[in-house]
Amino acid sequence: MRPSLRTSLFLAPATAWLLCMLVLPLVVVLVFSFGTRGAAGGYVPALSLENYANLGARWAAFQNTLVLAPLGTLTCLIIAWPLAYFLAIKADPRWRTLLLILVIVPFWTSILIRSYAWIQILGGNGLPSLIAELGMGKPRLINTPFAVMVGIVYGYLPLMVFPIYVALEKLDKKLLEASSDLGSPPFRTFLQVSLPLSLSGVATGSMLVFILLMGEFLIPQILGGGKVFFVGNALVDLFLQSRNWPFGAAVAATLVLVMLVTVTLYLRAMKRLSGGRDDVALM
């Protein structure tokens, strides 16, 4: 059997799976986006650009998503990198496994339950009451972008920690010692040694968190209280409540396009920072 034919046979099952489970649903969504809403909802075949022309009606959802998703990703990165560095470089090997388990412990509980727990913490009888007792007023924390950001960081932080931890675990500690012996201060060692060698983990973790946040709807729904809408919330409303499937498909197609462009530009930037390495986003 020719090598090319053998390779094609090996790839055929995976290719068929991707076509049926990934490409075909996207094609269906794209076709629906050019249709019109029926009298009782649903989809009526047509060839119209009206749904794309009305995207401005959901601009608030796009705006919240395009602001809070990158901001949440950046916040997770800022918190996760020192934590991953401590776990990979500084932590006692005898306790490392236990510490890693503690990082993923929140994942053992449904995100729904964890989000409701934050309602109690950020609600009127939680942190605001404590702040009021300290004589600093009683701020409103729940049903705000701040509450959504707290839920995002709490829910997605482990997805950022582990890729960075895996990248830093491969780091040769002798490089850090050599940098210190040559007189480099810790911050310069971070910029010239630790950060460049962990870019693969940073890229992977950032993509995991960012892509999931772009489609997030549960955390904004619960902690935003219907006042902080993401595109995911708009899609739930369009498909399940107003049953405007063509408009929902147009919103979904636009979201996919925005994610595709953003991720492509991000990977190119990371590849440039890593000196042209093709494996910058691979673990």
TrEMBL record:
Location of the protein in the cell: Cell membrane
Transmembrane segments: 66-86, 98-119, 146-168, 189-213, 245-267
CDD domains linked to this entry: TM_PBP2
Gene3D superfamilies, alphabetized: MetI-like (1.10.3720.10)
Main location: membrane
Keyword terms, alphabetized: Cell membrane, Membrane, Transmembrane, Transmembrane helix, Transport
Membrane topology: Multi-pass membrane protein
Domain named ABC transmembrane type-1: residues: 62-268
InterPro entries hit by this protein: MetI-like (IPR000515), MetI-like_sf (IPR035906)
Family statement drawn from the similarity comment of this UniProt entry: Belongs to the binding-protein-dependent transport system permease family. CysTW subfamily.
Protein name stated in the entry: ABC transporter permease
Organism in which the protein naturally occurs: Pseudogemmobacter lacusdianii
